[in-house]
Amino acid sequence: MTNIRITVAGASGRMGQALIRAIAETQDMDLAFALERKGHGHIGEDSGAMAGLPANKIWVTDDVLTALAGSDALLDFTSPAGSLAMADLSAQARIVHVMGTTGIEDSHIAQLNAAARHAVIVKSGNMSLGVNLLAALVREAAKALPNYDIEILEMHHRMKVDAPSGTALLLGDAAAKGRDVALAAKKVSGRDGITGARNDGAIGFASLRGGTVVGDHTVILAGPNERIELSHKAEDRMIFARGAIAAARWGQGKKPGLYSMTDVLGF
Predict the structure, then answer these.
(1) Could you point out which of 47, 78, 203, 221 has its C-alpha 20 to 30 Å from the C-alpha of 153?
(2) What is the distance between the alpha carbons of residues 89 and 95, in angstroms, rounded to a whole number?
(3) What is d(CA 22, CA 247) in angstroms, rounded to the nearest whole number?
(4) Looking at the annotation, which residues are catalytic?
(5) What is the H or E stretch that residue 1 is in?
(6) DSSP codes, 200-249
(7) C-alpha–C-alpha distance, residues 249 and 239, integer Å
(8) What is the Rg, in whole angstroms, of the alpha carbon atoms belonging to the chain?
(9) pLDDT digits (tens, 9 = 90+) for 160-213
(10) Distance CA 27, CA 47 (A)
């Protein structure tokens, strides 16, 4: 059986390098192309050596069209603008697009749905099995405890540029679905100053940044005289890389559409 050919976008970044290492340890997949944006300083480098592996003679390139035309799947943890552009190109190439990019807004979903008419797009704020299990637990807890206050606390490394994190929003959306409400209507972020009493039904977010934290998330359900805390701590980016690889494998042969990790994992 022919191996699945993978293109990694943002190949020189933390997640890009983790993806390259994860593909190297996967028997049914091959790294076909390592992509970076035009003018990037790593263009022309050996992608294996860049990721701390033996040289693989797959040079970092900015030729997106050639890469997608020669691949079965794209693994993409880049930027919202880059991911949206590559979603359109993935649709043209009819390949699986695994999108772990955070910062994707509701206003972008129409564009992704249009691309998903021709491509299998698996989009998630977090590719980890543990986080997606946590989301399922949060949904059930929010449903079972409708009068408890929900707060979501997340911490990431000092270089992260968006807040709340995509994972925090994924967990908030799970809580909102458990209560059959829209997250946008209940989301509260960045409290400061005299804010007044907490609104009933609000889903609060707090973001911490510092050091090299890969990702810590805690969902707090606070009720009368008790508090429930559901937490996940990521210790290595390889958990996200392996989840993305599972999504790329799952997407082979599926009908075009916009999917999530809950579809991949069967939750």
Answers:
(1) 78
(2) 9
(3) 13
(4) 156, 160
(5) none
(6) TT-EEEEEEE-TT--EEEEEEEEETTEEEEEEEEE--THHHHHHHHHHHH
(7) 16
(8) 19
(9) 999 999 899 999 999 999 999 999 999 999 899 999 999 999 999 999 999 999
(10) 18
